[in-house]
From TrEMBL:
It holds the Pfam family Phage_phiJL001_Gp84_N. Residues 196-278 form the Bacteriophage phiJL001 Gp84 C-terminal domain. This is Bacteriophage phiJL001 Gp84 C-terminal domain-containing protein. NCBIfam families: phg_TIGR02218. InterPro entries: Phage_phiJL001_Gp84 (IPR011928), Phage_phiJL001_Gp84_C (IPR018964).
Length: 296
């Protein structure tokens, strides 16, 4: 089927008289799809309708045959019924999947996929936005392999850690009683978890206009009779009173925490017995141990 589409498109190009346009499809990580075209009427293929006059255009695409990163930029206008400024601010388009098609608008079955990748840096100003598009080779720039360090290198609950966060006692769901600047949360009655239990964990918004957003927890402490949870950065969305949130226990990556808090030492991904820098300075001496420190 794909070979037939490409053959038909090649035949259209070879005819010398073309009816071409561009189509873009943006699929966010929450499953919301945005599709647009620079043609003057909407197009439909693969079960997706590409809206016309959506204010989206693209600059020249740089592509290579090696492992260098393919990249381009998409330019567009912010409008309420398409890509909104508040959703960009909330990070809902971060790492969204992008597909760019060159299409024969007179026969949409004749088309070729020009670019596939994800959204990188997003900038907005004056009612418009500029999105960096990164190709499929972008992940090859990430370093691979383990790091030799004392703290654990795994993320709590991932495939290396293997800890089941759904285990009772590691997740708490509450409704917001008081929130200041979408960064400081207070509860009058929040028992059953010791102080600091959720520090280095995360707070997920479960419903309301900010549903799907989350933040990393910086501090978790008692202030008088209140429980206070402070995030590193504010949630970038409205959080009215009564919004449901989920708090997940945090991990400071130490071996003692892995053993005592999570009982998961068998999956600890650090190297706690690595010698420190003082050990590297140690030299033999006749009068006792030399730990590398200064002599007194």
């Amino acid at each position: 089927m794909r070979a037939g589409i490409e053959a038909g498109f090649a035949g259209h190009i070879a005819s010398g008289v073309t009816t071409l346009c561009h189509c873009w499809q943006v699929t966010r990580r929450d499953g919301v799809v945005f599709a647009s075209t620079d043609h003057d009427v909407a197009l439909h293929f693969d079960g997706v309708t590409y809206r016309a006059n959506a204010g989206l255009s693209a600059q020249a695409l740089a592509q290579t045959s090696g492992l260098s990163v393919d990249n381009t930029e998409a330019l567009g206008a912010l409008c309420d019924d398409a890509i909104r400024e508040d959703e960009i601010e909330q990070g809902r388009f971060d790492r969204a999947e992008v597909q760019a098609w060159l299409v024969n608008w007179a026969e949409p079955s004749q088309r070729v996929l020009q670019f596939r990748g994800s959204i990188g840096e997003l900038r907005r100003a004056g009612g418009s936005f500029r999105a960096e598009l990164r190709g499929l080779t972008e992940p090859l720039n990430r370093p691979l392999g383990r790091v030799y360090q004392k703290p654990c290198s795994a993320v709590l609950g991932d495939g290396k850690c293997r800890f089941d966060l759904s285990t009772s006692g590691y997740i708490a769901e509450r409704v917001i009683e008081a929130a200041q600047e979408a960064q400081y949360f207070r509860w009058g009655a929040f028992l059953g978890f010791e102080e600091g239990w959720f520090a280095r964990g995360r707070l997920d918004v479960l419903d309301g206009p900010a549903a799907g957003l989350w933040g990393m927890i910086k501090l978790d402490y008692f202030k008088g009779a209140e429980r206070v949870v402070e995030l590193w950065e504010p949630i970038r969305g409205p959080l009215p009173e009564g919004t449901a949130v989920r708090l997940t226990a945090g991990c400071d990556k130490r071996m003692e925490t892995c053993r005592l808090k999570f009982n998961n030492l068998i999956n600890f991904q650090g190297f706690p017995d690595l010698p420190n820098e003082d050990w590297m300075m140690a030299v033999p001496r006749s009068d006792g141990a030399n730990g590398g420190g200064s002599r007194r």
